[in-house]
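Message: Study each token:
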Amino acid sequence: MPKLSKKLKEAHTKVDKTKQYPINEAIKIAKETSTTKFDSTIDIAFNLNVDPRHADQQIRGALVLPGGTGKTQKILVLTKTKLKEAIDAKADFVGGTELIQKIQKENWFEFDVVVATPEIMAELGKIGKLLGTKGLMPNPKTGTVTTDVVSAINDIKKGKVEYRTDKEGNIHSIIGKVSFNDENILKNYNAILDVIKKAKPAAVKGTYIKNVSISTTMGPGIKVLVDY
């Protein structure tokens, strides 16, 4: 296990690992325990009482964070029918078959998110594994397979984030940057908490959200008290 730096050791002393903090207090502690020289991302982690082996307990979707993400993402639009719309909406890269081939042959990944129109999905499926391992495969559930490429691009630029359960039933996302004011971080927290609550599978009995924690890049985890 790597040794903790002096700053990180000090940060850990500010967090009571046995306590669940009200979200307003957790945000303040997250900012106080950020140890990086750059503007750290504030992450959120949900531990859910779900079994992702069952299709009806797999949770996946996307939302636009009302306070934004603080990140600029490069957008690739793959389409045959909406080229002009995508260019006018200022996607970073726009094309069709030729860009799919570029990804396949040149291992080209100079983008952060892919939006695709339905008619190109059959071709895109040929490199599905390549995109899937990097979490870049477009999906209708997250609004990245659509005929309305303009709305998809605008949502991503406004601060759209995707979420999905991993094999252990956890969901990870971001809720902002350390430089954000507390109000915007709180808005983002409430927005993602709301969608996770509403996504509760019918098959889940008892406690659904087991734990929630927030942390900054390389900072300690801070457990959050969740109101049900």
Remarks:
- The domain at 16-69+160-223 is CATH 3.30.190.20 (Ribulose 1,5 Bisphosphate Carboxylase/Oxygenase).
- The helical segments are 6-13, 23-32, 83-88, 97-106, 121-124, 128-132, 149-158, 182-198.
